[in-house]
Amino acid sequence: MIIKPKTRGFICTTAHPEGCAVHVQEQIDYIKSKGSINGPKKVLVIGASTGYGLASRIAAAFGSGAATIGIFFEKPASEAKTASAGWYNTAAFDKKAKEAGLYSRNINGDAFSDEIKNKTIDIIKKDLGKVDMVVYSLASPRRTHPKTGVTHNSVIKPTGNPYTNKTIDFHSGVVSEVTIQPASEDEIKDTVAVMGGEDWEMWIQALKSAGVLENGFKTVAFSYIGPKLTHAIYTNGTIGKAKEHLENSSKAITAQLKEVHGKAYVSVNKALVTQASSAIPVVPLYISILYKIMKEKGLHEGCIEQASRLFAERLYSDSLELDSEGRIRIDDWEMRGDVQEGIVPAWEKITTENIHSLSDLEGYRSDFFKLFGFGFKEINYENDISPIVEIPGVE
Ligand code: NAD
Question: What Enzyme Commission number(s) appear in the record (predicted)?
Answer without folding.
Answer: 1.3.1.44
